[in-house]
Design a protein that fits this description.
Helices cover 45% and strands 7% of the residues. The chain is mainly alpha-helical. A hairpin with a 4-residue loop joins strand 1 and strand 2. The model has no long low-confidence stretch (mean pLDDT 89).
Length: 131
């Protein structure tokens, strides 16, 4: 942010949650952090039992069960950095698979673009106590 920020856990938790909310809102809209639409689901995936069982639509939002995105959380923070991710190894692996495109089409959702970072900066600045 370019200025001294509060070191309280409440402040860091609020900023982390806002960052998560931004990621979730964008991902639910089917867009990666660059604003590009996610690659469509494959025909074999759309024809799978899981796809039908979970009532998926053709809208790509990375939410088969909701576990991966639902467990995204602040996993670490330091004086000047907040790290988001997953404590759960399975969900962490799923996210890595999506962001790197290992066995599924690459859908790089876990990042913030300049506009989103500016929104987060304004959010954090509004939380800061007046001096």
């Amino acid at each position: 942010m370019g200025e001294k920020v509060p070191q309280s856990e409440d402040f860091k938790d609020a900023v982390a949650q806002r960052a998560i909310d931004i990621i979730l809102e964008r991902t639910d809209a089917g867009r990666d952090w660059r604003g590009k639409a996610f690659k469509k689901y494959s025909k074999s995936y759309k024809d799978s039992d899981d796809f039908e069982a979970f009532g998926k639509s053709s809208s790509v939002n990375l939410s088969l069960t909701g576990d991966m995105l639902g467990l995204l959380d602040k996993i670490n923070d330091t004086r000047d950095k907040i790290e988001l991710g997953w404590e759960d190894e399975t969900e962490n692996a799923k996210a890595a698979n999506h962001t790197q495109g290992v066995t599924v089409p690459q859908r790089d959702f876990l990042n913030l673009n300049k506009k989103e970072l500016e929104e987060l900066r304004r959010f954090a600045k509004d939380l800061m106590p007046d001096e």
